[in-house]
Amino acid sequence: RQLAFAILDGTLIPIDRVADQRPYYSGKHKRHGVNVQVIADAAGRLIWASAALPGRTHDLSAARQLGIIDALTSADVMTFADKGYQGARGTIRVPFKRHRSRPK
């Protein structure tokens, strides 16, 4: 509650292959890994990091599954995120996503 604003982002941490490979394979990055959601303050200092989720988990799905969006909205913390969180609503702010048919 004491933060002026926070930064939310997800990252893929590469791992070796495991017995059940399918959930840990990220099609976007073309490698096996785990998805970790991170909340940082304005200076970039780590505030919170999530437990590891399978690499194929989308950032928005991971944030919803972990309850990050609800927690930040209920605490009324303005949060900035990348385009991967488009549609999060609440106090999450994302960049404008231009439609592909519109000119730059």
Short description:
This protein has helices at 59-66, 68-74, and strands spanning 5-14, 25-26, 31-40, 46-49, 53-54, 78-81, 92-93.
Give the uncertain stretches in residue-range form: none
Shape: globular
Taking the sheet with the most strands, its summary is: 7 strands, mixed
Give helix and strand order, one letter per element, not per position: EEEEEHHEE
Overview features:
7-stranded mixed sheet; alpha/beta; 104 residues; 33% strand
Protein architecture, described:
The chain is of the alpha/beta class. It has two helices and seven strands. Strands 1, 2, 3, 4, 5, 6 and 7 form a seven-stranded mixed β-sheet that branches. A hairpin with a 4-residue loop joins strand 2 (25-26) and strand 3 (31-40). The protein is globular. The model has no long low-confidence stretch (mean pLDDT 88).
